[in-house]
Specification:
The structure is a homodimer of 210-residue chains. With 210 residues, chain A is an all-alpha fold. The first copy, chain A, has helices spanning 4-45, 48-56, 58-79, 83-117, 127-147, 151-181, 186-209. Chain A is elongated and about 65 Å long. Chain A binds chain B through residues 72-73, 76-77, 80, 82-83, 86-87, 90, 93-94, 97, 176, 179-180, 183, 186-187, 190, 193-194, 197, 208, and chain B through 72-73, 76-77, 80, 82-83, 86-87, 90, 93-94, 97, 176, 179-180, 183, 186-187, 190, 193-194, 197, 208.
Chain lengths: 210, 210
C-alpha cells in the first residue's frame, strides 16, 4: 500500500502545477492585451503618459515570460508528462513566446504613437480603434479556447483574422490616398500605417495561439 | 547483463534523434534564409518569378515546421530527457516557431516587392540589400551558435541586432524625405519601408534564437 499513495500525491501535484500554469498564461495574456489597449488609448487621447507607461512596462512582461518558461520546464523535468498533458505544456511554451511578442508590439505601437501625437493632426483613421478591438478580442478568445480546450472558439478566432487583414488593407489604401494628397500628412499617416501593421501582428499571434 | 544493453541502445537512439533534430533545424534555417534571399533578389532585379516562387513556397516551410514540432514532441514523449537535453528540445520548439515566422516574413517581403516592381522606379534605397545580408547572417550564425552551443557567437549575434535597427531607422528617415519631396514616390517608398521592417523582424527572430 505504499506505492499508490506517492503516485497519487505526485499526480495531484502535477494537476495543481498545470492549473497554475493555465492561470499564469491567462494573466500574461490579459497583461499583454492591456498594454495594447493602453497604447491605443494614448494614441486616441493624444496623451504622452500612457505611452510612456507602456514603453517602460516591457520589463514586467519579459519577467513574466521567463517565469512561465521556467514553470513549463520544471513541469516537464519533474513530472515527465505524456500524451495530452505533454502536448499542453509544449503548447504553453509557444503561447508564452507569442504573448511576449504581443507585449513587444504594444511597445512598438506606443513608440509610433509617441511620434504621431507630437505632430499636428494631419491624418487620422477611424478604423484603427476597431482593428485594435478586434485583435484584442481575438487574443482573449484564443486564450480562453486554449484553457477550456474549446475547438469551436479557436476556429472562430481563426476566421476573424481575415477581417483584421481586410481592415489593414483598407487602412493602408486610405492612408496612402491621404499621403499623396497632402505632404504634411505623410509622416503622421506613415505612423498610423505602422500601427495598423502592429495590430495585424497582434491578430497573427492570436491566430498562432488558436 | 540484460539491463545495461537496452539502456545503452535507448540512449544511442536518443542521441541519434537529437542529432537529426539539429540537422533538420539547420536545414529549416537555411530554407527560411534562402526564401528571404530570393525575395530580395526579386526586388533588386525587379523580377516577378522569384517573388511568385517565394509566395507559393510557404507551404513547404509550414510542413517543415510541423515535422520538426512532431520530432520534438516524440523526443519528449519517448525519451523523457532531463536537464540540458530537455532544455535543448524545448528550445528547438521555440526556434522552430521563429524560423517559420522568418518564412512568413519572406512572403511579406515578396508581396511588397511584387507591388513595388509593378510601378515606375521612383524610390530606391541602397542600404536595403545590406540590411538583408546582415539579417540573414545573424540568422545563420544564431543557428550555428545553437547547434554548436557557442555562447560567444550567440552574443555576437545579439550585438549585431543594433546595427540592423540603426539601418532600419536610417532607411525610414531617408525614405520619408523622398516621400515628402515627390508624391509619385510615396507608394514605392512605402513598400520599401515595409520591407525594411520585415528585414528588421528577421533580425529579431535571429536575436530570439541567439
Amino acid at each position: 500500500m505504499t506505492t499508490p499513495e506517492p503516485e497519487h500525491r505526485e499526480h495531484r501535484h502535477f494537476d495543481d502545477d498545470l492549473a497554475l500554469l493555465n492561470a499564469r498564461l491567462v494573466e500574461m495574456a490579459r497583461l499583454a492585451a492591456a498594454r495594447v489597449d493602453e497604447a491605443m488609448r494614448g494614441l486616441s487621447a493624444r496623451e504622452q503618459e500612457p505611452l510612456t507607461h507602456v514603453i517602460l512596462g516591457d520589463e514586467e512582461i519579459n519577467r513574466f515570460q521567463i517565469e512561465i518558461d521556467d514553470r513549463c520546464f520544471k513541469l516537464l523535468a519533474l513530472h515527465q508528462p505524456v500524451a495530452v498533458d505533454l502536448r499542453f505544456v509544449v503548447t504553453a511554451v509557444k503561447v508564452n513566446a507569442d504573448l511576449e511578442r504581443v507585449g513587444d508590439l504594444a511597445v512598438n505601437i506606443a513608440e509610433a504613437a509617441r511620434r504621431y501625437i507630437q505632430r499636428p493632426m494631419a491624418a487620422t483613421h477611424s478604423d484603427l480603434p476597431l482593428m485594435a478591438e478586434l485583435a484584442q478580442a481575438m487574443l482573449r478568445d484564443a486564450l480562453t479556447a486554449l484553457v477550456n480546450r474549446d475547438v469551436v472558439l479557436a476556429q472562430d478566432v481563426l476566421r476573424r483574422d481575415d477581417r483584421v487583414d481586410e481592415l489593414k488593407n483598407e487602412i493602408f489604401r486610405s492612408l496612402l490616398g491621404v499621403m499623396i494628397n497632402d505632404s504634411q500628412a505623410i509622416q503622421p499617416a506613415l505612423d498610423l500605417v505602422l500601427i495598423s501593421r502592429h495590430l495585424e501582428r497582434v491578430g497573427d499571434h492570436a491566430t498562432n495561439i488558436a
